[in-house]
Amino acid sequence: MFRAMQVVLRGEGRRAAAAGLTGHCGYSTASSSQRLAGKVAVITGAASGIGKATAAEFVRNGAKVVLADVQDDLGRALAAELGADSASYTRCDVTDEAQVAAVVDLAVARHGKLDIMLNNAGIVGSLARPELGALDLADFDAVMAINTRGVMAGVKHATRVMAPRRAGSIICTASIAGVLGQLTPHPYSVSKFAVVGLVRAVAGELARSGVRVNAISPNYILTPLVKRILQEWYPEASGEEHRRIVESDINEMEGVVLEVEDIAKAALYLASDDSKYVNGHNLVVDGGFTVGKAPNMPAPAQ
User: Fold this and answer.
1) CATH class for domain 40-128+135-219+258-285?
2) What local confidence, expressed as pLDDT, does residue 31 receive?
3) Is 234 a catalytic residue?
4) Which of 117, 156, 195, 257 is the most buried (most CB within 10 A)?
5) 188 annotated active-site
């Protein structure tokens, strides 16, 4: 099992350790740090998963956040949960550049500036894994339109309003699928490699305007997107078995499990002045998953 992700299953001891861990719940806006006090952020793909957790983290730390998504009910509910003084929701399909420009302009009109842009909207596309010669380029184009072109639109329009102020932090959600190949279907993997490439391509130019751009590459987390992958690839497995795959089988770290809140804290670091000299960086949050690969060799003689 799990050949599709090329993960070697660990023993039951790893499973038991992970199964005993519990995640966070709720989105309290209480804060003791206020690391983003006075800052204004736009988050695309904000209504669920990493975007939702990051919105809550930003608000806890004093930011005003414009939530952008196409999941209207979830987005409005999150804005209400975070509070009208701190968060608002607007619909934004990142494949339409005009809508990306509009959400940036909305943040400036409402709050006077834009300090942080988190380009987080993304899809996985088809989960079929055909031979490369049978790749569906229509699916490839659809994934690239959101995951890469949509990110480029966010970088472009955030830069448009940040550069004149000589300050700003742009963050792009990438993935370990953009660090190692063959972890996901090709369209998603290529789109995330492209996000990392985009960050590195523009970081030098933006630095001369006082604007930073960085990426975050998470390991698998049990977000709605990953749940969909597991449900399709392993339909006979229960929800609890899917959780064990993510929290035990893929997990490189003993005693801890990667959660959306961990990625939110990584985004908080890149958004805050604590990372004032970090630019063009891909912050990989994977517990060491991508640092090496065992060679395809026969076992040595004992």
Assistant:
1) alpha beta
2) 45
3) no
4) 117
5) yes
Task: Find, among 48, 103, 43, 74, the residue nearest to 268 by Cα.
Answer: 43
Q: How far apart are CA 96 and CA 121, in angstroms?
A: 13
- Those residues whose C-beta lies under 8 Å from the C-beta of residue 193, and which sit 6 or more positions away, are 177, 178
Annotation marks residue 86 as catalytic: no
Length, in residues, of the chain: 302
Contact 121, 149 (CB under 8 A): no
Active-site pick, 175, 191, 248, 272:
175
Determine how many CB atoms are found less than 10 A away from the CB of residue 79: 21
pLDDT (0 to 100) of residue 2: 38
Task: State which amino acid sits at residue 221.
Answer: I
Mean pLDDT score of the chain = 89
Rounding to the nearest 10 degrees, give the CA dihedral for residues 134, 138, 141, 146. -120
The DSSP bridge pattern shows strands 40-44 and 64-69 to be: parallel
Burial letters 255-271, b for 16+ CB under 10 A, else e: eebbbbbbbbebbbbbb
Q: Which of 52, 188, 191, 275 is catalytic?
A: 188
Tokens of 38: 């006075």
Catalytic residue among 192, 220, 272, 275: 192
Which residues of the chain are under the pLDDT cut of 50?
Answer: 1-31
pTM across the whole model: 0.87
9-18 residue pLDDT tens? 343 444 444 4
Q: What is the pLDDT of residue 237?
A: 87
- pLDDT tens, residue by residue, 152-199: 999 999 999 999 999 999 999 999 999 999 889 999 999 999 999 999
Domain regions of the chain by residue span: 40-128+135-219+258-285, 221-257
